[in-house]
Amino acid sequence: MIFSRYELPVVSGHGRGRLLGYPTFNLVIPEGFELPFGIYAAWAWIGDVRYGAAMHYGPIPVFDDPKPSLELFLLDYKDDDSIVDILGVEPVRYLREIRPFASPENLAEAIGNDVLVTREYLADRQLLDYLADEASSYPRFEDGRIDYTDTPSAAGVGIFLEHDGKLLLVKRSEKVGSYKGRWHVVSGYLDEPVSLREKAEEELREELSLTLPSTLEWLFGPGFRSQDGHLLLFSCLIRLKSVPEITLDWENTEYSWVDITEIVRFDPVPSCLQEWAHLLAL
Fold first, then answer.
1. How high is the mean pLDDT of the chain?
2. What domains lie within the chain, and their CATH numbers?
3. Among the four 110, 146, 180, 252, which has the fewest Cβ within 10 Å?
4. Nearby residues of 216 by Cβ (< 8 Å), 6 or more positions away
């Protein structure tokens, strides 16, 4: 499937997305628009500012509306009532077909899942773009992973496990390379072209001897730069249904389930607080 970027006029809609909790921009369908009906992950631009977006193209069966519409829900867009006349749009991945949901509530639930899938896919794209561009010339270990020891930048992921209003923090051992003895979440360098979920699962197995069930909900945040600009930080939040059994490896000496409001009291590494703040803003 070949995707292109479009600059499309914004038009008035029926306000259904806002009622469902996902306000959308309704766009003029361009002449010769040949994408199959469906739900897509996309990039969108308002001026020079880029947003991730979940895109609907097609009819809306739950409202008995057979006329195709083109609508985008922009991730992390703060609606300040400013007028947007033109939206730049670039679909990047087909997610699913249009479905005839039994009720608007069922549709809203599906949209929520589409947004989670979109966030994860676009975060993966952002990581792969970084590895293929900025980090492409960085030195490698023998196994092909990037050696970030003396590089101008590095990419990493923080994994936030939450249960009943508490987050899992681990205390870094004296054997790790940085922030010895400081509290952090499970984390790791993103030093090879694998998905964020794969890397997070690998770190959980290594540091906690933990394998999570596939039914849990994962929330992925977009990558952002640390305050000094050196790190490209990604984060994910996993809500657990029960407290798991944990066995620490050499990287950490102890762990604690900490009330979300008490994280600062543990004086965690700076990136931990930055990542948590970004997740809270999603």
1. 94
2. 6-132 (2.40.30.30), 154-280 (3.90.79.10)
3. 180
4. 238, 239, 240, 241
Tens of pLDDT, residues 203-219: 999 999 999 998 999 99
Instruction: Show the 3-state SS of the chain.
Output: CCCCCEEEEEECCCCHHHHHCCCCEEECCCCCCCCCCEEEEEEEEECCEEEEEEEEEEEEHHHCEEEEEEEEEECCCCCCCCCCCEEEEEEEEEEECCCCCCCHHHHHHHHHHHHHHHHHHHHHHHHHHHHHCCCCCCCECCCCCECCCCCCCEEEEEEEEEECCEEEEEEECCCCCCCCCCEECEEEECCCCCCHHHHHHHHHHHHHCCCCCCCCCEEEEEEEECCCCCEEEEEEEEECCCCCCCCCCCCEEEEEEEEHHHHHHHCCCHHHHHHHHHHHCC
Burial category of 234 from C-beta neighbours within 10 Å (exposed 0-12, middle 13-18, buried 19 and up): buried
The token pair at 45 is 């631009």
123 pLDDT above the threshold of 80 = yes
Q: How far is it, in rounded angstroms, from Cα 260 to Cα 185?
A: 13
Specify burial of residue 187 (Cβ count, 10 A radius: 0-12, 13-18, 19+). Answer: buried
Quick one: tokens of 256? 């604690």
Q: Are 252 and 171 in contact (CB under 8 A)?
A: yes
Contact of 170 with 252, CB cutoff 8 Å: yes
**pTM (2 d.p.):** 0.93
CA dihedral over 149, 179, 263, 253, signed as positive or negative:
positive
**Strand 231-239 relative to strand 154-163: parallel, antiparallel, unpaired?**
parallel
Tally of residues, the chain: 282
